[in-house]
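W.,

You were right to be curious about this one. When I first looked at the sequence I had no strong expectations either way, so I just let the prediction run and decided to look at it fresh. Below is the sequence, 410 residues in total, followed by the output.
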Amino acid sequence: MMKFLDGVKVVEIGHILMAPYATQFLGDFGADVIKVESLDGDYYRQLGLGRKRGMTAQWMSVNRNKRSISLDLKDPEARETLNALLRDADIVVHNMRVKAIERLGLGYDAVKALNPKVVYCAAIGFGQDGPYADFPAFDDIIQAYSGLAAVNGVGSGKPTFLPLAIVDKVVALMLGQAMLAGLHRQRATGKGCYIETPMFEAAVTVVLNQHLNGHSYVPAEAGLGYKRVMSPHRQPAPTKDGYIVHGVYKFEHWRRFLTETGRQDVLDGPLMADQHAMANNIAGLYQIAAQEILPTRTTAEWRALFDELDIPSAPVLQMEDLENDPHLKAVGLFEEYDHPSQGRLRWMRAPFTVRDVETSADRHPPEIGEHSLEVLREVGLTDEQIEALHARGVIRDFSEQPDQATRKVG
């Protein structure tokens, strides 16, 4: 953990991927992130591969550097216990549907009444001022709504999902920025705020940031779509023995590349008449490179030539290559550690390198309610009160045995 946010308390009422991924970064930066879970835990704990119930690899990948408290939020007494936690929070974040969070009495107005300085961040499917406000949303739905699936299918001719929950992750990064911006204002003014980060609007801004193109002007001066990145030939290109990705991008890059490969016919033709012609005919240039030029040499030969021409290039690595990649090994991206209940594990550290910042050991991803007793004591509950809540079955604590709730308070 990096101590950028030492002393900042974050309450995450999050599940699955989006809010948990965002708050993990805040935990990496040193915030005290308290994850509020139901008695059954975050549903993401059940998805993917796991050695033991409730601790899958998917879930652990976005929940380090947090403490877990497990409560029945429908119970008034447990809710009052959560209220004590909310009163002292700097940031409260959720990624539930707005009506669902409000039914729990945890909407912005309710939390603000408890804590006027709170930075309340809602990561939701659709902005609440539009007709889609109550629509359910998850990554595939938003890939479809936002045009991302359509744009990603340009090469194949049919809409195609990216094989990862890209919207959840990109929106999580935006959500993280929003939380930090709200925190900065809170520190400067003492005032809280509400920040809504909807998946649909966020994804559309990502897609159309490059592709609004001619529609940036009123009236429109051209169609949608940035030609270079929309070209179906802008793909890893086949070589004699594999594939290569090239960075032949600028006008001067194309001049060097075509000269060195003996394609004076293209260099002297209409596709390369000038910078403007190159930009307008980029799909044709990509096609010539991919189909006529690059298959004539090996990947290693092309990489050597591109280095000589000062043009970026890359091989196409498989997922299996990454753990043994020499650069990732050198920077120590993959780390092994001993989890108290899961044994020896591997994770990817936070992808930052810091200097002149205090650090401390990372917290392992917690069991359901692993820190319930600890957190409840911090908000002022006595052992007798905690035992009474346990007896009523509205809080859950896990210690050494991840498959059994304990009631050991002392």
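Here's what jumped out at me. The CA atoms of residues 94 and 263 lie 57 Å apart. And, maybe more interesting for your project: The longest strand covers residues 32-37.

Coffee later to discuss?

I.
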